[in-house]
Amino acid sequence: MSTESLVTLQQAFDERRSIYDLGSDLPVEPQAIVNMAERVLLHTPSAFNSQSSRLVVLFGEQHQHLWDITEEKLREAVGDGDFSSSKQKLDGFRAAAGTILFYEDKNVTKSLQEKFALYADKFPVWAQHTSAMHQYAMWTELRTLNVGANLQHYNPLIDEEAAAAFAIPESWELVAQMPFGSIGEPAGEKSYQPVSERMKVLGLDS
Length: 206
Description:
Helices cover 47% and strands 15% of the residues. It is an alpha+beta fold. The protein has a single domain, classed as NADH Oxidase, CATH 3.40.109.10. Strands 1, 2, 3, 4 and 5 form a five-stranded antiparallel sheet that branches. The longest helix is centred in the middle third of the chain and has 22 residues, at 123-144.
Protein backbone atom coordinates (compact mmCIF):
# COMPACT_ATOMS: atom_id res chain seq x y z
CA MET A 1 0.00 0.00 0.00
CA SER A 2 1.38 3.38 -0.96
CA THR A 3 2.03 6.18 1.48
CA GLU A 4 -0.60 8.24 -0.33
CA SER A 5 -3.32 5.61 0.20
CA LEU A 6 -2.32 5.26 3.84
CA VAL A 7 -2.70 9.00 4.34
CA THR A 8 -6.09 8.94 2.62
CA LEU A 9 -7.26 6.14 4.90
CA GLN A 10 -5.95 7.96 7.97
CA GLN A 11 -7.75 11.13 6.94
CA ALA A 12 -10.97 9.19 6.49
CA PHE A 13 -10.50 7.60 9.91
CA ASP A 14 -9.99 11.01 11.51
CA GLU A 15 -12.73 12.82 9.59
CA ARG A 16 -15.54 10.26 9.69
CA ARG A 17 -18.47 11.93 11.44
CA SER A 18 -22.24 11.76 11.72
CA ILE A 19 -23.50 13.97 8.89
CA TYR A 20 -27.19 14.82 9.09
CA ASP A 21 -27.38 17.45 6.35
CA LEU A 22 -27.30 15.04 3.42
CA GLY A 23 -28.16 15.61 -0.22
CA SER A 24 -28.85 13.39 -3.22
CA ASP A 25 -26.09 14.81 -5.45
CA LEU A 26 -23.37 12.22 -4.89
CA PRO A 27 -19.77 13.20 -5.72
CA VAL A 28 -19.29 9.71 -7.24
CA GLU A 29 -21.32 7.38 -9.42
CA PRO A 30 -23.79 5.22 -7.46
CA GLN A 31 -22.00 2.12 -8.69
CA ALA A 32 -18.96 3.23 -6.67
CA ILE A 33 -21.07 2.83 -3.52
CA VAL A 34 -22.14 -0.64 -4.63
CA ASN A 35 -18.53 -1.61 -5.33
CA MET A 36 -17.53 -0.31 -1.92
CA ALA A 37 -20.25 -2.35 -0.21
CA GLU A 38 -19.04 -5.48 -2.01
CA ARG A 39 -15.50 -4.81 -0.84
CA VAL A 40 -16.64 -4.27 2.75
CA LEU A 41 -18.50 -7.58 2.71
CA LEU A 42 -15.50 -9.42 1.29
CA HIS A 43 -12.77 -7.99 3.51
CA THR A 44 -14.29 -7.04 6.88
CA PRO A 45 -13.47 -9.65 9.55
CA SER A 46 -16.11 -11.74 11.29
CA ALA A 47 -16.09 -14.06 14.30
CA PHE A 48 -15.02 -17.60 13.32
CA ASN A 49 -14.94 -16.26 9.73
CA SER A 50 -18.73 -16.60 9.86
CA GLN A 51 -19.32 -14.02 7.09
CA SER A 52 -22.76 -13.55 8.62
CA SER A 53 -23.28 -9.90 7.68
CA ARG A 54 -25.65 -8.98 4.88
CA LEU A 55 -26.07 -5.59 3.19
CA VAL A 56 -28.93 -4.07 1.22
CA VAL A 57 -28.11 -0.87 -0.68
CA LEU A 58 -31.14 1.27 -1.54
CA PHE A 59 -31.27 4.09 -4.09
CA GLY A 60 -34.02 6.20 -5.59
CA GLU A 61 -37.60 5.12 -4.96
CA GLN A 62 -36.49 2.17 -2.85
CA HIS A 63 -34.56 4.50 -0.55
CA GLN A 64 -37.57 6.80 -0.29
CA HIS A 65 -39.85 3.85 0.42
CA LEU A 66 -37.76 2.83 3.41
CA TRP A 67 -38.28 6.21 5.06
CA ASP A 68 -41.98 6.19 4.15
CA ILE A 69 -42.23 2.88 6.01
CA THR A 70 -40.33 4.33 8.94
CA GLU A 71 -42.57 7.39 9.12
CA GLU A 72 -45.70 5.27 9.01
CA LYS A 73 -44.53 2.99 11.81
CA LEU A 74 -43.31 5.91 13.93
CA ARG A 75 -46.61 7.74 13.53
CA GLU A 76 -48.40 4.62 14.73
CA ALA A 77 -46.10 4.44 17.76
CA VAL A 78 -46.42 8.14 18.60
CA GLY A 79 -50.19 8.25 18.13
CA ASP A 80 -51.53 11.70 18.88
CA GLY A 81 -48.18 12.92 20.23
CA ASP A 82 -46.06 15.68 18.68
CA PHE A 83 -44.43 14.30 15.52
CA SER A 84 -42.72 17.47 14.29
CA SER A 85 -39.16 16.66 15.39
CA SER A 86 -39.39 13.09 14.08
CA LYS A 87 -40.78 14.38 10.77
CA GLN A 88 -37.84 16.77 10.42
CA LYS A 89 -35.36 13.94 11.02
CA LEU A 90 -37.05 11.62 8.56
CA ASP A 91 -37.18 14.30 5.87
CA GLY A 92 -33.44 14.72 6.36
CA PHE A 93 -32.90 11.02 5.74
CA ARG A 94 -35.17 11.12 2.68
CA ALA A 95 -33.07 13.95 1.23
CA ALA A 96 -30.04 11.64 1.10
CA ALA A 97 -28.96 9.71 -1.99
CA GLY A 98 -29.53 6.27 -0.51
CA THR A 99 -29.52 4.03 2.53
CA ILE A 100 -27.52 0.95 3.45
CA LEU A 101 -29.34 -1.64 5.55
CA PHE A 102 -27.16 -3.84 7.74
CA TYR A 103 -28.42 -7.33 8.49
CA GLU A 104 -27.10 -10.40 10.28
CA ASP A 105 -28.08 -13.88 9.09
CA LYS A 106 -29.52 -15.74 12.08
CA ASN A 107 -29.09 -19.08 10.31
CA VAL A 108 -25.33 -18.59 10.28
CA THR A 109 -25.32 -17.77 14.00
CA LYS A 110 -27.51 -20.77 14.77
CA SER A 111 -25.25 -23.14 12.84
CA LEU A 112 -22.22 -21.90 14.77
CA GLN A 113 -24.08 -22.35 18.07
CA GLU A 114 -24.79 -25.94 17.14
CA LYS A 115 -21.25 -26.60 15.94
CA PHE A 116 -19.51 -24.94 18.89
CA ALA A 117 -21.89 -25.52 21.79
CA LEU A 118 -19.37 -24.32 24.38
CA TYR A 119 -19.67 -20.78 22.97
CA ALA A 120 -23.36 -20.93 22.05
CA ASP A 121 -24.37 -17.98 24.21
CA LYS A 122 -21.59 -15.83 22.75
CA PHE A 123 -22.37 -16.12 19.05
CA PRO A 124 -25.32 -13.65 19.04
CA VAL A 125 -23.04 -11.12 20.76
CA TRP A 126 -20.22 -11.77 18.31
CA ALA A 127 -22.67 -11.36 15.42
CA GLN A 128 -23.38 -7.84 16.68
CA HIS A 129 -19.64 -7.19 16.86
CA THR A 130 -19.33 -8.41 13.27
CA SER A 131 -22.10 -6.10 12.11
CA ALA A 132 -20.51 -3.18 13.95
CA MET A 133 -17.24 -3.74 12.11
CA HIS A 134 -19.08 -3.73 8.78
CA GLN A 135 -20.89 -0.54 9.73
CA TYR A 136 -17.68 1.21 10.69
CA ALA A 137 -15.82 -0.04 7.62
CA MET A 138 -18.57 1.21 5.35
CA TRP A 139 -18.82 4.54 7.14
CA THR A 140 -15.07 5.12 6.86
CA GLU A 141 -14.96 3.98 3.23
CA LEU A 142 -17.76 6.40 2.36
CA ARG A 143 -15.68 9.20 3.85
CA THR A 144 -12.82 8.41 1.45
CA LEU A 145 -15.23 9.32 -1.35
CA ASN A 146 -16.36 12.51 0.41
CA VAL A 147 -19.78 10.95 0.96
CA GLY A 148 -21.47 11.74 4.27
CA ALA A 149 -23.46 9.29 6.37
CA ASN A 150 -25.07 8.72 9.73
CA LEU A 151 -26.26 5.61 11.53
CA GLN A 152 -29.82 4.93 12.64
CA HIS A 153 -31.60 2.14 14.52
CA TYR A 154 -35.31 2.03 13.75
CA ASN A 155 -35.31 -1.73 14.10
CA PRO A 156 -37.27 -3.69 15.20
CA LEU A 157 -40.05 -1.15 14.54
CA ILE A 158 -39.64 -1.40 10.75
CA ASP A 159 -38.34 -4.96 10.41
CA GLU A 160 -41.46 -6.67 9.12
CA GLU A 161 -42.48 -4.00 6.62
CA ALA A 162 -38.92 -3.54 5.34
CA ALA A 163 -38.53 -7.28 4.88
CA ALA A 164 -41.73 -7.41 2.82
CA ALA A 165 -40.84 -4.33 0.77
CA PHE A 166 -37.33 -5.45 -0.16
CA ALA A 167 -37.77 -9.25 -0.31
CA ILE A 168 -35.51 -9.86 2.67
CA PRO A 169 -34.96 -13.53 3.62
CA GLU A 170 -36.63 -14.56 6.86
CA SER A 171 -33.32 -15.43 8.51
CA TRP A 172 -31.90 -11.91 8.04
CA GLU A 173 -32.19 -9.72 11.14
CA LEU A 174 -32.03 -5.94 10.71
CA VAL A 175 -29.34 -4.27 12.82
CA ALA A 176 -28.92 -0.70 11.52
CA GLN A 177 -29.69 1.78 8.76
CA MET A 178 -27.13 4.16 7.22
CA PRO A 179 -28.43 7.06 5.10
CA PHE A 180 -25.69 8.46 2.86
CA GLY A 181 -25.31 11.31 0.41
CA SER A 182 -23.56 14.53 -0.46
CA ILE A 183 -22.45 16.63 2.48
CA GLY A 184 -24.40 19.84 3.05
CA GLU A 185 -23.46 21.22 6.44
CA PRO A 186 -20.36 19.51 7.91
CA ALA A 187 -20.49 18.15 11.44
CA GLY A 188 -19.68 20.59 14.22
CA GLU A 189 -16.62 20.56 16.42
CA LYS A 190 -16.18 17.40 18.46
CA SER A 191 -14.90 17.35 22.03
CA TYR A 192 -12.60 14.57 23.15
CA GLN A 193 -12.02 13.05 26.54
CA PRO A 194 -8.29 12.94 27.38
CA VAL A 195 -6.66 9.85 25.92
CA SER A 196 -4.69 9.48 29.16
CA GLU A 197 -7.95 8.72 30.96
CA ARG A 198 -9.03 6.13 28.38
CA MET A 199 -5.88 4.21 27.53
CA LYS A 200 -2.98 2.43 29.24
CA VAL A 201 0.31 1.48 27.64
CA LEU A 202 2.28 -1.19 29.52
CA GLY A 203 5.69 -2.72 28.87
CA LEU A 204 6.77 -0.32 26.14
CA ASP A 205 10.13 0.42 27.79
CA SER A 206 10.84 -3.04 29.15
